[in-house]
């Protein structure tokens, strides 16, 4: 029995499709892992159709174009979707992304330090 285990790829794909469908910007290009990309033609209705049985590539970025010709690179996550809907500016989007990455780094660092401390405590207690 085959079990689908590509939840991250599917989530990125779904958010990218929502960005494409509800964005105030036009999706110009989709970037995938491994340096691959797909340029989106303006007349192309749905670039997010997947053939069944095909592996879903991981979408890393979407290139959006504004009405004034300005290009914006967004990640397929909830913050990227909110930016694409026009809920906040690109400057605010990049600040939120930077803040989220620094929070993640802090949480990982604290977790590693906690595990090291617990391990050291166990060694000291048992010896």
How much helical structure, as a percent, in the residues? 40-55%
Shape: elongated
Question: For the CA atoms, what is the radius of gyration?
Answer: 20 Å
- How many individual β-strands? 4
The total tally of domains equals 2
Percent strand equals: 15-25%
SS class: alpha+beta
Low-confidence stretches: none
Number of helices: 3
Strand order of the largest sheet: 2-1-3-4
Please tag this protein with its features.
single chain, 127 residues, 4-stranded antiparallel β-sheet, 3 helices, elongated
Structure description:
This protein is an alpha+beta fold. The chain folds into two domains: 87 residues, no CATH class; 39 residues. Helix 1 packs parallel to helix 2. The model has no long low-confidence stretch (mean pLDDT 87).
Write a brief caption for the model.
The protein has 127 residues and is of the alpha+beta class. It is 47% helix and 17% strand.
Set out the fold topology.
Blueprint: H1 7-22, E1 26-32, E2 37-39, E3 59-65, E4 71-74, H2 78-84, H3 90-126
Antiparallel strand pairs: 1-2, 1-3, 3-4
Helix pairs in contact: 1-2
